[in-house]
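haha ok so turns out i had the wrong file open the whole time. this is the CORRECT one, sorry everyone. sequence first:
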Amino acid sequence: MQIGILGLPASGKTTVFRALTGAGQRPRRGELQADTRIVPVPDARLPVLAAMYRPRKVTPATLEFIDPLVEGAPSLRHYVDSLLPLLRSVEALAHVLRAFEDAAVPHPLGSVDPLRDVRRLNEELLLADLAVVEKRCERLAKDLKKTQDRTLAEEYALLQRCRETLEAGEPLRRLALTAAEEKRLRGFGFLSSKPQLLVLNLDEAAIPREAALLAEFTARLPEPDVEVLPLYGKLEQEIAELAPEDAAAFRRDLGLKAAGLERFVQKCFSLLRRSTFFTANENEVRAWTVPQGTSALEAAGVIHSDMARGFIRAEVVSFDDLAACGSPARAREAGKLRLEGKEYAVQDGDVLYIRFHV
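then structure:
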Protein backbone atom coordinates (compact mmCIF):
# COMPACT_ATOMS: atom_id res chain seq x y z
CA MET A 1 0.00 0.00 0.00
CA GLN A 2 1.20 3.49 -0.83
CA ILE A 3 0.21 6.35 1.46
CA GLY A 4 0.92 9.99 0.60
CA ILE A 5 1.35 12.46 3.46
CA LEU A 6 0.27 16.07 3.06
CA GLY A 7 -0.56 19.01 5.29
CA LEU A 8 -0.34 22.76 5.65
CA PRO A 9 3.02 24.31 6.55
CA ALA A 10 3.85 23.92 10.27
CA SER A 11 1.33 21.07 10.62
CA GLY A 12 4.09 18.64 11.63
CA LYS A 13 3.71 16.64 8.42
CA THR A 14 7.35 15.62 8.21
CA THR A 15 7.55 14.98 11.96
CA VAL A 16 4.68 12.51 11.57
CA PHE A 17 6.45 10.95 8.58
CA ARG A 18 9.60 10.45 10.65
CA ALA A 19 7.63 9.11 13.61
CA LEU A 20 5.94 6.48 11.45
CA THR A 21 8.97 5.45 9.43
CA GLY A 22 11.80 5.96 11.91
CA ALA A 23 13.46 8.18 9.32
CA GLY A 24 16.19 10.55 10.40
CA GLN A 25 16.95 13.95 8.92
CA ARG A 26 15.56 13.88 5.43
CA PRO A 27 17.79 14.66 2.44
CA ARG A 28 17.01 17.73 0.36
CA ARG A 29 17.52 17.02 -3.28
CA GLY A 30 16.20 19.96 -5.21
CA GLU A 31 13.13 22.08 -5.54
CA LEU A 32 10.58 19.31 -6.03
CA GLN A 33 10.87 15.75 -4.74
CA ALA A 34 9.42 13.28 -2.30
CA ASP A 35 10.98 11.23 0.46
CA THR A 36 9.81 7.63 0.20
CA ARG A 37 10.18 5.02 2.93
CA ILE A 38 8.94 1.42 3.08
CA VAL A 39 8.19 0.07 6.55
CA PRO A 40 7.08 -3.41 7.69
CA VAL A 41 3.48 -3.65 8.88
CA PRO A 42 3.41 -4.67 12.57
CA ASP A 43 1.46 -7.92 12.97
CA ALA A 44 1.52 -9.95 16.19
CA ARG A 45 0.42 -13.06 14.28
CA LEU A 46 3.68 -13.37 12.34
CA PRO A 47 5.89 -14.35 15.33
CA VAL A 48 3.34 -17.00 16.34
CA LEU A 49 3.41 -18.54 12.87
CA ALA A 50 7.20 -18.27 12.77
CA ALA A 51 7.51 -20.16 16.06
CA MET A 52 5.16 -22.83 14.70
CA TYR A 53 6.75 -23.37 11.27
CA ARG A 54 10.36 -22.35 12.07
CA PRO A 55 10.94 -21.00 8.55
CA ARG A 56 14.19 -19.79 7.06
CA LYS A 57 12.57 -16.43 6.36
CA VAL A 58 9.75 -14.27 7.76
CA THR A 59 8.35 -11.61 5.44
CA PRO A 60 5.87 -9.03 6.76
CA ALA A 61 3.53 -6.96 4.64
CA THR A 62 4.83 -3.47 3.93
CA LEU A 63 3.51 0.07 3.82
CA GLU A 64 5.12 2.72 1.62
CA PHE A 65 5.02 6.31 2.83
CA ILE A 66 5.55 9.22 0.45
CA ASP A 67 6.31 12.60 2.00
CA PRO A 68 6.40 15.32 -0.68
CA LEU A 69 8.94 18.08 -0.26
CA VAL A 70 7.86 21.22 -2.05
CA GLU A 71 10.34 24.03 -1.49
CA GLY A 72 9.36 27.66 -1.70
CA ALA A 73 5.77 27.31 -2.91
CA PRO A 74 4.49 30.93 -3.05
CA SER A 75 0.91 29.94 -2.16
CA LEU A 76 -1.24 27.05 -1.04
CA ARG A 77 -2.49 26.69 -4.63
CA HIS A 78 1.07 26.26 -5.91
CA TYR A 79 1.75 23.77 -3.12
CA VAL A 80 -1.25 21.61 -4.05
CA ASP A 81 -0.48 21.82 -7.77
CA SER A 82 3.01 20.54 -6.97
CA LEU A 83 1.56 17.57 -5.12
CA LEU A 84 -0.18 16.20 -8.21
CA PRO A 85 2.82 14.51 -9.85
CA LEU A 86 4.20 13.38 -6.48
CA LEU A 87 1.03 11.77 -5.12
CA ARG A 88 -0.73 10.71 -8.32
CA SER A 89 -0.10 7.00 -7.77
CA VAL A 90 -0.74 6.68 -4.02
CA GLU A 91 -3.71 4.67 -2.77
CA ALA A 92 -4.67 7.01 0.06
CA LEU A 93 -3.80 10.38 1.57
CA ALA A 94 -2.84 11.00 5.18
CA HIS A 95 -3.81 14.62 5.87
CA VAL A 96 -1.84 15.89 8.87
CA LEU A 97 -3.73 18.53 10.86
CA ARG A 98 -2.06 20.68 13.44
CA ALA A 99 -3.85 20.32 16.79
CA PHE A 100 -1.09 21.53 19.11
CA GLU A 101 0.01 24.93 20.34
CA ASP A 102 3.64 25.99 20.01
CA ALA A 103 4.59 29.66 20.30
CA ALA A 104 7.98 28.90 18.75
CA VAL A 105 6.30 27.63 15.56
CA PRO A 106 3.51 30.04 14.56
CA HIS A 107 0.64 28.67 12.52
CA PRO A 108 0.72 30.23 9.02
CA LEU A 109 -2.99 31.09 9.30
CA GLY A 110 -2.58 32.76 12.68
CA SER A 111 -4.31 30.21 14.93
CA VAL A 112 -4.64 26.49 15.54
CA ASP A 113 -7.92 25.27 14.03
CA PRO A 114 -7.81 21.76 12.51
CA LEU A 115 -11.39 21.97 11.20
CA ARG A 116 -10.56 25.11 9.25
CA ASP A 117 -7.40 23.48 7.95
CA VAL A 118 -9.32 20.44 6.70
CA ARG A 119 -11.64 22.65 4.71
CA ARG A 120 -8.86 24.90 3.43
CA LEU A 121 -6.61 22.21 2.04
CA ASN A 122 -9.43 20.01 0.74
CA GLU A 123 -10.88 22.98 -1.15
CA GLU A 124 -7.53 23.35 -2.87
CA LEU A 125 -7.52 19.64 -3.74
CA LEU A 126 -10.90 20.07 -5.41
CA LEU A 127 -9.68 23.08 -7.37
CA ALA A 128 -6.54 21.24 -8.49
CA ASP A 129 -8.63 18.31 -9.73
CA LEU A 130 -11.07 20.70 -11.42
CA ALA A 131 -8.22 22.34 -13.33
CA VAL A 132 -7.12 18.92 -14.62
CA VAL A 133 -10.69 18.05 -15.64
CA GLU A 134 -11.24 21.34 -17.44
CA LYS A 135 -7.96 21.09 -19.33
CA ARG A 136 -8.73 17.56 -20.50
CA CYS A 137 -12.34 18.45 -21.42
CA GLU A 138 -11.09 21.34 -23.51
CA ARG A 139 -8.82 19.02 -25.43
CA LEU A 140 -11.54 16.38 -25.84
CA ALA A 141 -14.04 18.96 -27.11
CA LYS A 142 -11.61 19.94 -29.87
CA ASP A 143 -10.98 16.31 -30.79
CA LEU A 144 -14.69 15.47 -30.86
CA LYS A 145 -15.29 18.24 -33.38
CA LYS A 146 -12.96 16.40 -35.74
CA THR A 147 -14.13 12.84 -35.08
CA GLN A 148 -17.07 11.19 -33.35
CA ASP A 149 -14.95 8.67 -31.51
CA ARG A 150 -17.07 6.67 -29.05
CA THR A 151 -14.28 6.20 -26.53
CA LEU A 152 -13.51 9.92 -26.47
CA ALA A 153 -17.21 10.75 -26.16
CA GLU A 154 -17.57 8.42 -23.17
CA GLU A 155 -14.52 9.96 -21.50
CA TYR A 156 -15.88 13.44 -22.10
CA ALA A 157 -19.26 12.53 -20.57
CA LEU A 158 -17.55 11.00 -17.55
CA LEU A 159 -15.36 14.04 -17.01
CA GLN A 160 -18.42 16.28 -17.25
CA ARG A 161 -19.85 14.34 -14.30
CA CYS A 162 -16.56 14.88 -12.48
CA ARG A 163 -16.74 18.60 -13.24
CA GLU A 164 -20.27 18.83 -11.83
CA THR A 165 -19.24 17.01 -8.66
CA LEU A 166 -16.21 19.22 -8.09
CA GLU A 167 -18.08 22.43 -8.83
CA ALA A 168 -20.64 21.37 -6.22
CA GLY A 169 -17.80 21.25 -3.68
CA GLU A 170 -17.80 17.45 -3.43
CA PRO A 171 -14.68 15.26 -3.66
CA LEU A 172 -14.55 12.76 -6.49
CA ARG A 173 -14.44 9.84 -4.05
CA ARG A 174 -18.19 10.43 -3.51
CA LEU A 175 -19.00 10.02 -7.19
CA ALA A 176 -20.76 6.71 -7.92
CA LEU A 177 -18.70 4.95 -10.58
CA THR A 178 -18.68 1.60 -12.30
CA ALA A 179 -15.51 -0.49 -12.27
CA ALA A 180 -14.85 0.54 -15.89
CA GLU A 181 -15.28 4.22 -15.04
CA GLU A 182 -12.93 3.91 -12.08
CA LYS A 183 -10.34 2.34 -14.34
CA ARG A 184 -10.78 5.11 -16.91
CA LEU A 185 -10.19 7.82 -14.30
CA ARG A 186 -7.32 6.08 -12.53
CA GLY A 187 -4.67 7.51 -14.81
CA PHE A 188 -5.56 11.07 -13.84
CA GLY A 189 -4.58 10.43 -10.22
CA PHE A 190 -7.21 12.85 -8.90
CA LEU A 191 -6.34 13.78 -5.32
CA SER A 192 -9.94 14.19 -4.19
CA SER A 193 -10.77 10.69 -5.41
CA LYS A 194 -8.38 9.08 -2.93
CA PRO A 195 -9.49 7.80 0.49
CA GLN A 196 -8.34 10.20 3.17
CA LEU A 197 -7.09 9.67 6.72
CA LEU A 198 -7.12 12.78 8.89
CA VAL A 199 -4.22 12.70 11.35
CA LEU A 200 -4.83 14.95 14.35
CA ASN A 201 -1.28 15.90 15.33
CA LEU A 202 -1.49 16.44 19.11
CA ASP A 203 1.05 17.18 21.81
CA GLU A 204 1.75 15.05 24.87
CA ALA A 205 -0.46 17.20 27.12
CA ALA A 206 -3.52 16.03 25.16
CA ILE A 207 -3.14 12.33 26.01
CA PRO A 208 -5.61 12.35 28.96
CA ARG A 209 -8.18 14.22 26.84
CA GLU A 210 -7.73 12.24 23.63
CA ALA A 211 -11.20 10.65 23.59
CA ALA A 212 -12.97 13.94 24.29
CA LEU A 213 -10.92 15.83 21.70
CA LEU A 214 -11.56 13.16 19.08
CA ALA A 215 -15.31 13.14 19.77
CA GLU A 216 -15.49 16.95 19.56
CA PHE A 217 -13.55 17.02 16.30
CA THR A 218 -15.51 14.25 14.55
CA ALA A 219 -18.86 15.71 15.66
CA ARG A 220 -18.08 18.95 13.80
CA LEU A 221 -16.28 17.37 10.86
CA PRO A 222 -17.93 18.08 7.49
CA GLU A 223 -16.24 15.05 5.91
CA PRO A 224 -18.37 11.90 6.48
CA ASP A 225 -16.25 9.54 4.41
CA VAL A 226 -12.86 9.87 6.11
CA GLU A 227 -11.10 8.16 9.00
CA VAL A 228 -9.64 10.17 11.89
CA LEU A 229 -6.55 9.21 13.88
CA PRO A 230 -5.19 11.10 16.91
CA LEU A 231 -1.38 10.90 16.83
CA TYR A 232 1.40 12.49 18.86
CA GLY A 233 3.90 13.24 16.13
CA LYS A 234 6.74 14.81 18.12
CA LEU A 235 6.38 12.34 20.98
CA GLU A 236 6.21 9.34 18.64
CA GLN A 237 9.30 10.57 16.81
CA GLU A 238 11.20 10.63 20.12
CA ILE A 239 9.87 7.19 21.10
CA ALA A 240 10.91 5.78 17.71
CA GLU A 241 14.54 6.45 18.65
CA LEU A 242 14.33 4.21 21.76
CA ALA A 243 15.02 0.49 22.00
CA PRO A 244 11.79 -1.55 21.53
CA GLU A 245 11.61 -2.56 25.22
CA ASP A 246 12.16 1.02 26.41
CA ALA A 247 9.65 2.36 23.89
CA ALA A 248 6.96 -0.09 25.09
CA ALA A 249 7.59 0.84 28.74
CA PHE A 250 7.48 4.55 27.92
CA ARG A 251 4.16 4.18 26.13
CA ARG A 252 2.70 2.27 29.08
CA ASP A 253 3.77 5.03 31.44
CA LEU A 254 2.12 7.62 29.20
CA GLY A 255 -1.08 5.62 28.83
CA LEU A 256 -0.65 4.95 25.10
CA LYS A 257 -2.08 1.51 24.28
CA ALA A 258 -0.25 1.02 20.97
CA ALA A 259 2.54 2.51 18.88
CA GLY A 260 1.64 5.25 16.45
CA LEU A 261 2.50 3.05 13.46
CA GLU A 262 0.23 0.25 14.69
CA ARG A 263 -2.69 2.65 15.12
CA PHE A 264 -1.97 4.21 11.73
CA VAL A 265 -1.92 0.81 10.00
CA GLN A 266 -5.24 -0.21 11.59
CA LYS A 267 -6.88 2.96 10.30
CA CYS A 268 -5.38 2.53 6.83
CA PHE A 269 -6.60 -1.07 6.59
CA SER A 270 -10.07 0.09 7.62
CA LEU A 271 -10.02 3.04 5.22
CA LEU A 272 -8.80 1.01 2.25
CA ARG A 273 -10.79 -2.12 3.18
CA ARG A 274 -7.74 -4.36 3.22
CA SER A 275 -7.23 -7.80 4.75
CA THR A 276 -4.14 -9.85 5.52
CA PHE A 277 -3.70 -13.52 4.72
CA PHE A 278 -0.64 -15.68 5.33
CA THR A 279 1.33 -18.38 3.59
CA ALA A 280 3.42 -20.57 5.84
CA ASN A 281 5.91 -23.41 5.39
CA GLU A 282 9.47 -24.33 6.40
CA ASN A 283 10.93 -21.96 3.81
CA GLU A 284 8.96 -18.78 4.51
CA VAL A 285 6.16 -17.36 6.60
CA ARG A 286 4.74 -14.38 4.76
CA ALA A 287 1.94 -11.83 5.18
CA TRP A 288 0.03 -10.66 2.11
CA THR A 289 -2.25 -7.63 1.91
CA VAL A 290 -5.30 -7.80 -0.36
CA PRO A 291 -8.64 -5.99 -0.75
CA GLN A 292 -11.46 -7.37 1.38
CA GLY A 293 -13.49 -9.91 -0.58
CA THR A 294 -10.51 -11.16 -2.59
CA SER A 295 -11.21 -14.66 -3.92
CA ALA A 296 -8.94 -17.62 -3.35
CA LEU A 297 -8.08 -17.57 -7.06
CA GLU A 298 -7.12 -13.89 -6.90
CA ALA A 299 -5.08 -14.49 -3.74
CA ALA A 300 -3.24 -17.29 -5.54
CA GLY A 301 -2.41 -14.82 -8.31
CA VAL A 302 -1.02 -12.36 -5.76
CA ILE A 303 1.40 -15.07 -4.59
CA HIS A 304 2.38 -16.18 -8.11
CA SER A 305 0.69 -16.07 -11.49
CA ASP A 306 1.34 -19.81 -12.01
CA MET A 307 -0.71 -20.59 -8.90
CA ALA A 308 -3.70 -18.77 -10.34
CA ARG A 309 -3.23 -20.32 -13.78
CA GLY A 310 -3.13 -23.87 -12.41
CA PHE A 311 -5.37 -23.37 -9.37
CA ILE A 312 -7.01 -26.54 -8.04
CA ARG A 313 -7.98 -25.89 -4.43
CA ALA A 314 -6.93 -23.80 -1.45
CA GLU A 315 -6.24 -25.42 1.92
CA VAL A 316 -7.45 -22.88 4.48
CA VAL A 317 -7.21 -22.58 8.24
CA SER A 318 -7.89 -19.42 10.22
CA PHE A 319 -5.03 -18.05 12.30
CA ASP A 320 -7.15 -18.21 15.46
CA ASP A 321 -7.94 -21.90 14.94
CA LEU A 322 -4.33 -22.68 14.07
CA ALA A 323 -3.00 -20.84 17.14
CA ALA A 324 -5.55 -22.54 19.39
CA CYS A 325 -4.59 -25.99 18.06
CA GLY A 326 -0.88 -25.27 18.34
CA SER A 327 0.26 -26.83 15.06
CA PRO A 328 -0.92 -27.51 11.50
CA ALA A 329 -1.13 -31.24 12.25
CA ARG A 330 -3.40 -30.72 15.25
CA ALA A 331 -5.52 -28.26 13.28
CA ARG A 332 -5.98 -30.91 10.59
CA GLU A 333 -6.88 -33.54 13.20
CA ALA A 334 -9.41 -31.18 14.76
CA GLY A 335 -11.06 -30.60 11.38
CA LYS A 336 -10.14 -26.93 11.32
CA LEU A 337 -8.34 -27.15 7.99
CA ARG A 338 -10.72 -27.15 5.04
CA LEU A 339 -10.61 -27.17 1.25
CA GLU A 340 -12.03 -24.18 -0.59
CA GLY A 341 -12.62 -23.46 -4.28
CA LYS A 342 -11.61 -20.52 -6.44
CA GLU A 343 -14.65 -18.40 -5.45
CA TYR A 344 -13.95 -18.55 -1.70
CA ALA A 345 -13.64 -15.04 -0.19
CA VAL A 346 -10.38 -14.92 1.74
CA GLN A 347 -10.84 -13.73 5.32
CA ASP A 348 -8.44 -11.66 7.40
CA GLY A 349 -6.06 -14.00 9.20
CA ASP A 350 -6.53 -16.98 6.85
CA VAL A 351 -3.47 -19.18 6.37
CA LEU A 352 -3.52 -20.52 2.81
CA TYR A 353 -1.81 -23.37 1.03
CA ILE A 354 -2.60 -23.29 -2.68
CA ARG A 355 -2.86 -26.58 -4.55
CA PHE A 356 -2.09 -26.01 -8.22
CA HIS A 357 -0.80 -27.75 -11.31
CA VAL A 358 0.81 -26.16 -14.35
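The radius of gyration is 23 Å.
again sry for the mixup
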